[in-house]
Amino acid sequence: MAARVVSPSKKLLKSLCNGKFFSTRPLNSSSPSSSISINLTTEKPEQQPPIDLHQPTNTASLNLHDVEKLFSSVTTTKLLRASANLQMAAMEPMVDFGMWVMNSKLMDIQVFKEIVLGFVKHTFYEHFCAGEDALATGDTVRRLHNGGAGLRAMLDYAVEYAGDNQSCDRNLEAFLRTVEIAKSLPPSSVSFVIVKISAICPLKLLERVSDLLRWQHKNPSFNLAWKMDTLPILSDISPTYHTLKEPEPLTLEEEHDLKLGHQRLLKICQNCLGSNVPLTIDAEHTSVQPAIDYLTYSSAIMYNKDDNILVYGTIQAYLKDAKERLLQAYQAADEMGVPVGIKLVRGAYMSSERKLASSLGFESPIHNSIQETHTCYNDCASFMLNKIANGPGALVLATHNTESGRIAVGQAHDLGIGKVNQKLEFAQLYGMSDALSFGLRNAGFQVSKYMPFGPVEIVMSYLLRRAEENRGLLSTSTLDRQLMRNELKRRLKAAIF
What's the EC number here (predicted)? Predict the structure, then answer.
């Protein structure tokens, strides 16, 4: 099929990037009705001014000082376990040792492996994962939604990369079962099903397709006969060092495998449509992201209709080209009459991205400072909030940064985006930033927890990657731990007196 890509005009993009279409509120300052200045980072920790958690805030929108109200749905046992697990996860030497053990040959010794996996299962796994099977996962989702917390679940079968079609077919069945799990649970308790494209399309093929898409971006006359209708994938500042010479065309076998990968994605989309559960495609490394965006946008063009947005793509704000790619894709979709669903994250591959770029002798695609990442995230959030307030589209703000949450809440209020609005969802990882999740919930917004699940052996790769990439986030969980300790002290005093 001949590909059709609608590209927004350069004049419009310049206006967008210069801030013409963004909120007029300064993104790094609070609104008149807000005064929270707490900040949780997802990258290298930065120095923060001391915060008196005992002083009430001046906002009724995002209140993090009332620990009794924040943790009212959490049992004391759960609070104690969560506090202990976060304390261990924040100790980098322990994380380093754990990663060394899991990657060592000691894991080839069955008895040793069973002991280690048993410890992991009853600590980090239970804290960060929903369960090993459909029954356990369903129970966790119900407790989260109906047990007083009122939070929703983004279900992620936490399989990592696939190397061949046999593995892809196995993963496809697992994702289809995930859709069935979501369908079987109480209405509105599951907000999304999550899919990684690298689990249903061989990783090497995604790298090949990304090379070809990058080369076509450099040379628009470069023909890709297999390419379907899509949205703009790369911008003029996107990293292209992965593809320094013209790649060979896909072989007939590779074209066939790409078609199979797309068919797997469409089958998941169709099942999600039948189950009335939206689908979010996770972002991955820049080496394969062009192919992931290509498949995501092609599917979105087919399935996103009017106010029914089925397929959501993911933008990683720690990338220097994130804002420009978002603007291009949104504008092109708008011209095509296709509503866009976006999950906005900061990013989860910072270490590996910087290492790859450095090894090739190129500048990192990651912003040079944490503040630049914060600014990019807030700018992208502002752009999308303005768009969904006045037209089609939907937004998932996945953040552990309290300042970004506060800014978004203030802007949503200013724009008249109603609380419990299907166009706006906040999200955090399961087991992380619970205070922010509960605060946003108490403010009346829809909040989801990103919940990986699956057998311990399969999920270990996910947990190891999260431990490696989220060192900064885990070590800056100080706020959550302090709030939990405050609530535990309050409960102890109440029990005594």
Answer: 1.5.5.2
